[in-house]
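Sample entry (166 residues):
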Amino acid sequence: MNAAGTNESHRAYLCLGSNVQPEFNLQRAIQLLKEQASIFAVSTAWETQAVGAPGAPNFLNACVGLETSFSAEELTAGLIRPIEAALGRIRTADKNSPRTIDIDLVLYDDEPLRLEYWEEAFLLVPLSELLPQFAHPANGKSLLGTAEAARQKVWITARPEVLHGF
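Predicted structure, serialized as C-alpha cells:
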C-alpha cells in the first residue's frame, strides 16, 4: 500500500548505470530491486564510453521495468536512493564522475521523466528493447527507430553475458 493508502499499480522503467565494478554493481542493484519490487523486464547490458571524463572507465547501462504501488516520488526516495546508498553511490558536483551505481526513473505510467537522457544511446538502446514501439517524447518516432539512429552516432556494444539469467 502506498502513502495515499491505495494498492494502485504503476509501471515504472529505470535506467541503471555503473562504471565502478559495473558487472557486479548492475547485478547487485537488480537483485536489490527484485527484493522490493516486481520486476517484469530486464534489458541487455550495454557498454558505452564515459562522457566528459577523459580516461574514465566505460559505463555499463541497462533498463528494468517494474510494477509498483509507489508514487514516482516514493519510488525514488524509498527504493532507488537507498539502493544507490547501499551500493556506495556518492553524489558529487561532478555529474560525470565515476559511480558504483546510478539509477534513474525515466518512465512512470507512460510519462517520460529525465528528458535530458532521452537523446542518449545509453538510455534509448536498452529501453527500446523493453518498449520498442513507445513514442519518443520529442520526435514521436518509435523508441526502436530512435535508438537505431542513436547507435549510429556513438560507440555502444551489447554485453549480454552481464545480465544473463535476469
